[in-house]
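A.,

Following up on our hallway conversation. C-alpha coordinates first:
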Protein backbone atom coordinates (compact mmCIF):
# COMPACT_ATOMS: atom_id res chain seq x y z
CA UNK A 1 0.00 0.00 0.00
CA UNK A 2 0.99 3.60 -0.60
CA UNK A 3 0.54 6.38 1.96
CA UNK A 4 -1.33 9.41 0.62
CA UNK A 5 -1.08 12.90 2.11
CA UNK A 6 -3.96 15.22 1.18
CA UNK A 7 -3.57 18.87 2.12
CA UNK A 8 -6.15 21.51 1.25
CA UNK A 9 -4.97 25.11 1.48
CA UNK A 10 -5.62 28.71 0.45
CA UNK A 11 -3.39 30.93 -1.63
CA UNK A 12 -4.67 34.34 -2.76
CA UNK A 13 -5.37 34.57 -6.48
CA UNK A 14 -2.65 37.24 -6.73
CA UNK A 15 -0.03 34.65 -5.69
CA UNK A 16 -1.28 31.72 -7.81
CA UNK A 17 1.38 32.24 -10.50
CA UNK A 18 4.11 32.43 -7.86
CA UNK A 19 2.82 29.19 -6.31
CA UNK A 20 2.97 27.40 -9.66
CA UNK A 21 6.42 28.84 -10.36
CA UNK A 22 7.67 27.60 -6.96
CA UNK A 23 6.28 24.09 -7.44
CA UNK A 24 9.16 22.57 -9.50
CA UNK A 25 11.80 23.55 -6.91
CA UNK A 26 9.67 22.17 -4.09
CA UNK A 27 9.21 18.87 -5.92
CA UNK A 28 12.91 18.73 -6.69
CA UNK A 29 13.73 19.20 -2.99
CA UNK A 30 11.31 16.44 -2.05
CA UNK A 31 12.70 14.11 -4.73
CA UNK A 32 16.32 14.64 -3.71
CA UNK A 33 15.93 14.91 0.06
CA UNK A 34 12.83 13.03 1.28
CA UNK A 35 13.06 9.27 1.68
CA UNK A 36 9.95 7.54 0.38
CA UNK A 37 8.62 10.44 -1.71
CA UNK A 38 6.89 8.91 -4.74
CA UNK A 39 5.25 11.91 -6.41
CA UNK A 40 2.58 14.57 -6.07
CA UNK A 41 -0.39 16.15 -7.80
CA UNK A 42 -1.52 19.75 -7.27
CA UNK A 43 -5.19 20.43 -7.96
CA UNK A 44 -6.77 23.86 -8.16
CA UNK A 45 -10.22 23.74 -6.59
CA UNK A 46 -11.19 27.38 -7.04
CA UNK A 47 -9.78 30.86 -7.27
CA UNK A 48 -7.90 30.54 -3.99
CA UNK A 49 -8.22 26.89 -2.88
CA UNK A 50 -5.84 24.08 -3.74
CA UNK A 51 -5.47 20.39 -2.94
CA UNK A 52 -2.00 18.85 -2.82
CA UNK A 53 -1.97 15.06 -3.03
CA UNK A 54 1.43 13.59 -2.15
CA UNK A 55 2.34 9.91 -2.36
CA UNK A 56 4.72 8.29 0.14
CA UNK A 57 6.16 4.79 0.32
CA UNK A 58 5.18 4.48 4.01
CA UNK A 59 3.43 6.37 6.77
CA UNK A 60 6.80 6.65 8.52
CA UNK A 61 8.31 8.42 5.48
CA UNK A 62 5.45 10.90 5.52
CA UNK A 63 5.79 11.45 9.29
CA UNK A 64 9.52 12.13 8.93
CA UNK A 65 8.92 14.62 6.13
CA UNK A 66 6.27 16.38 8.19
CA UNK A 67 8.66 16.50 11.17
CA UNK A 68 11.32 18.14 9.01
CA UNK A 69 8.92 20.73 7.61
CA UNK A 70 10.24 23.42 5.28
CA UNK A 71 13.93 22.71 5.81
CA UNK A 72 14.91 23.08 2.14
CA UNK A 73 14.79 26.33 0.10
CA UNK A 74 12.29 25.14 -2.52
CA UNK A 75 9.96 23.70 0.09
CA UNK A 76 10.21 26.85 2.22
CA UNK A 77 9.35 29.11 -0.72
CA UNK A 78 6.32 27.03 -1.71
CA UNK A 79 5.02 26.73 1.85
CA UNK A 80 5.60 30.45 2.40
CA UNK A 81 3.05 31.29 -0.29
CA UNK A 82 0.26 29.46 1.56
CA UNK A 83 -2.05 31.70 3.59
CA UNK A 84 -4.01 28.99 5.38
CA UNK A 85 -4.02 25.22 5.64
CA UNK A 86 -7.68 24.18 5.61
CA UNK A 87 -7.16 20.48 6.25
CA UNK A 88 -4.52 17.78 6.18
CA UNK A 89 -5.29 14.07 6.07
CA UNK A 90 -3.44 10.81 5.63
CA UNK A 91 -4.75 7.70 3.94
CA UNK A 92 -3.61 4.66 2.01
CA UNK A 93 -4.28 3.28 -1.41
CA UNK A 94 -3.73 -0.10 -2.94
CA UNK A 95 -3.54 1.41 -6.43
CA UNK A 96 -0.04 1.94 -7.79
CA UNK A 97 1.09 5.56 -8.03
CA UNK A 98 0.23 6.91 -11.48
CA UNK A 99 -2.61 4.43 -12.09
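Then the amino acids I'd put at each of the 99 positions:
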Amino acid sequence: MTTVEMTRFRVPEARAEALLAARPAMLSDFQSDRAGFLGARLIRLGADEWLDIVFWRTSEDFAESRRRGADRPGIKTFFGLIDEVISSEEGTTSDPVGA
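The longest strand covers residues 84-93. Curious whether your intuition agrees with the design.

B.
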